[in-house]
Amino acid sequence: MKDEIIREVYQVLEDRRDNPIDSYTSKIMCDSNKRAEDKILEKIGEEAAEVLIASKNDENLVYESADLIFHTLLLLVYKGVELDELFEEFERRRK
Question: What would the pLDDT profile of 43-71 be if each residue is shown by its tens digit?
Fold first, then answer.
């Protein structure tokens, strides 16, 4: 199923948090010069702006949306929020 990719990405991010390697996601979650959360939030703001621009220009909307969702998942992992909590929130709103 295609939606399983979200779980796979989330699991990779958890692994990068718990077992840091030389990767963008490990580095951003372990940043010591600037608070990691601040860096992640900056990226989300940047990616959100890029989604707005992509939508207005009718180009790269899927690409930019994937970046925004990726960084949102990164924040959830960093903050220790379980992916199922997000899915449960969507289910609650659907009722």
Answer: 999 999 999 999 999 999 999 999 999 99
Q: Please name the residue ranges forming H helices in 1-95.
A: 4-18, 24-30, 36-57, 61-78, 83-94
Residues 6+ apart with CB under 8 A from 47: 64, 67, 68, 70, 71
The amino acid present at 50, given as its one-letter code, is: E
Q: 77-89 in b/e burial notation, b at 16+ Cβ within 10 A?
A: bbeeeebeeeeee
What is the amino acid identity at position 41?
L
Cα 64 to Cα 50: distance, rounded to the nearest angstrom? 6
33 confidence band (pLDDT: 50, 70, 90) = low
Record the tokens describing residue 85, joined without a space: 């909590």
